[in-house]
Amino acid sequence: MEQVTRAWFDEVVVPTYNPAPFIPVRGSGSRLWDQADREYIDLAGGIAVNALGHCHPALVATLIAQGQTLWHVSNWMTNEPALRLARKLVNATFADRAFFCNSGAEANEAAFKLARRYAHDKFGPGKDQIIAFYQGFHGRTFFTVTVGGQASYSDGFGPKPGQVLHLPYNDIAALREAISDRTCAVVMEPLQGEGGVLPVDPAFAKAVRELCDQHQALLILDEVQTGMGRTGSLFAYMDLGIEPDVLTTAKALGGGMPIGAMLTRDDMAQVFQPGVHGTTFGGNPLACAVAGTAFDLINDPSLLAGVVEREAWFREALAQINAQYQCFSQVRGKGLLIGAVLTEAWHGKAKLFVDAAAEAGLLILVAGGNVVRFAPALNLSREEFDTGMARFSEAVAKVVAG
């Protein structure tokens, strides 16, 4: 069989990405190995997806067992794994109903359509404004990329969906001035991931909830990246003293298996009667079975407490590295979604640190040009962490030395 090389990507794949020069071929825990059998410590987690690391034995066992019984059925039937997963999600959250799809973008697309339809059916066609926030990220469909607050992702594709207003994140006065009875929904990440690992101010979160209630608008929380244990609670809203009307999740939900979900209350769910919205692959037995096992492993008090413990590991190690190299102005985030914000001298150069880390055998992320992001497995071992941060220190030294 012909040897696959990185050059194939440039020949046969649409160039939406510029992947690393190496190709990973196997993984275990928080380690990956490439075609040359070189080892990498993975502190990127597939962008917060591999919440239990690579090839977790329980997920592998579930995948094999379900793969030998039932993979897919059409959506005029339901299936046991989907029903079990839906029951787990509604029992653990504010929600009464779950809608399954294949990604975070699809979950957000469903949420935005639900908000528009709910307002239309309950209040009439004039209540259609969606308020979102600058630097937010909600997916790559045309609707979700328009609601996302980064014009560079939505410009150049023709007329955008209308009645979407963007405001500064964490600015209560701006929201109070802008929201009205025409607003059908406010969409917010409890911690902006792609926008720079920027946490919500709890006072702002409570003000959003109160203003939504005053104007009969739905509060949609995008927990695609923050959900499923990432911040040390099952979902980030649980630490904010508020509840959303709609919540979206994906990434870690399947522990690496593509799946997304929209959660909502019963009265809102009723506007999605048969034929109003749908998905061919959403809720398939294979993805839902694996997600059900991942849910059981993540929704465990000891694992969630371990996320908080590991956050402290990162903050201590990054402080030690920064004491030597002075390249970070602050470390922010929560749980195992950590952002090391670069000092002004290094603005726009976050990828230099990512590339140097890869050369040292470490996988990390950026969150814009000014933030180095860590989103590792929630069960990251101390030995994997120590090895990874030693390699990160080596990478930082190399970048600073030029």
From TrEMBL:
Give the co-factor note. Answer: Binds 1 pyridoxal phosphate per subunit.
Swiss-Prot/TrEMBL catalytic activity? N(2)-acetyl-L-ornithine + 2-oxoglutarate = N-acetyl-L-glutamate 5-semialdehyde + L-glutamate
Q: Does the entry feature the keyword Glycosyltransferase, yes or no?
A: no
UniProt keywords, alphabetically: Amino-acid biosynthesis, Aminotransferase, Arginine biosynthesis, Cytoplasm, Pyridoxal phosphate, Transferase
Cofactor list: pyridoxal 5'-phosphate
Domain of life here? Bacteria
Return the SUPFAM superfamilies for the record. Answer: PLP-dependent transferases (SSF53383)
Query: Which CDD domains does the record cross-reference, listed alphabetically?
Result: OAT_like
Question: Which family does the UniProt entry place this protein in?
Answer: Belongs to the class-III pyridoxal-phosphate-dependent aminotransferase family. ArgD subfamily.
Q: How does it assemble?
A: Homodimer.
**What protein is this chain from?**
Acetylornithine aminotransferase
Name the species this protein comes from: Pseudaeromonas sharmana
Classification of source organism: Bacteria, Pseudomonadati, Pseudomonadota, Gammaproteobacteria, Aeromonadales
Q: Which gene encodes it?
A: argD
